[in-house]
Design a protein that fits this description.
The protein is of the alpha/beta class. It contains twelve helices and five strands. Helix 8 runs antiparallel to helix 9.
Length: 289
């Protein structure tokens, strides 16, 4: 989770830099070109804390020779797609360094020599330690294991990060509907992802033709063909506690997603936090399948 990107076409340098970074607890995702960078950002921006750019590099992966226009193109691309995302320039060409520094005085620039690389690594560590999304992933690392194992996709990871970043601090009742819609949508995503991996746990017949989950039927199936605390008749995939967490999450979210002119009680942020924590437990439960 403590990851950064480096864009450099010198494979030997990337290997050495990756080893130095790893010694400080930093993992490195390498790219050889601007094209390679574009495959990582902005789509996977939530996975990384910063990007390190060479001054001269390839524009395309299959390009034979590095291009001096790379750095200008890369900076323009980052400005337009991920403004504010931490970036550093690292080069072995001191003349190019001096030239670029005149026109881009605000850029963080380093020379490929031991002292400068050490300073850069500490700058990267600072970015990692202070990146909001990476801090969330470290705090809830047991939850995010499901994404590391590839059992849920990148869009789901981004939705969960949004729920944890925004939902846990939301105090305005008017905004609860949006948070709860995301929470229940993610709950449904959990069951759909299990269905892809293990149809014994979540069979195809638990979904309507429009893709909606037959929730009550699914809960009964997961509990061994019964509703807890009745003794199960078939294999049990969720213990009663998970059953109750799931039910509370599904129906409580549904109640407040829909407007009710006769509503007399309005939940507080404590319910929102409780339901989000329910969701986190369900993710951990689902990881076994």
């Amino acid at each position: 989770m403590n990851s950064i990107i480096i864009v450099d076409d010198d494979q030997d340098f990337i290997k050495d830099f990756t080893n130095q970074a790893f010694a400080k607890g930093i993992t490195v995702a390498p790219a050889n070109s601007l094209e390679g960078l574009q495959k990582l950002l902005p789509q996977y921006v939530h996975r990384y804390a910063a990007v390190v750019l060479d001054i001269k590099c390839l524009l395309k992966d299959d390009q034979a020779k590095e291009d001096s226009s790379f750095i200008g193109s890369a900076l323009t691309y980052l400005n337009s797609t991920t403004p504010g995302f931490p970036r550093f320039i690292l080069t072995g060409d001191e003349s190019e360094f001096d030239s670029l520094k005149r026109y881009h005085a605000d850029e963080n620039m380093f020379i490929k020599k031991p002292d400068d690389q050490e300073r850069l690594l500490y700058e990267l560590l600072y970015c990692i330690q202070n990146a909001d999304l990476l801090k969330i992933k470290r705090e809830y690392n047991v939850v995010f294991d499901i994404f590391e194992s590839g059992k849920m996709n990148d869009l789901a990871e981004q939705m969960l990060l949004k729920i944890l970043k925004e939902g846990l601090i939301e105090k305005n009742f008017r905004n609860f509907k949006g948070v709860l819609a995301d929470v229940r949508s993610f709950q449904e995503t959990i069951y759909k992802s299990i269905n892809i991996r293990n149809k014994a746990v979540v069979p195809d017949n638990m979904f309507r033709p429009n893709g909606m989950i037959k929730f009550n039927e699914l809960m009964k199936h997961l509990s061994g063909g019964v509703t807890p605390p009745t003794m199960p008749l078939r294999p049990v995939y969720q213990v009663p506690t998970v059953f109750y967490l799931s039910n509370t999450l599904y129906w409580s979210s549904g109640e407040y997603i829909h407007e009710d002119p006769n509503r007399s009680y309005f939940i507080s942020e404590f319910t929102i936090k409780s339901l989000i924590n329910n969701l986190l437990e369900l993710i951990i439960w689902s990881n076994q399948y």
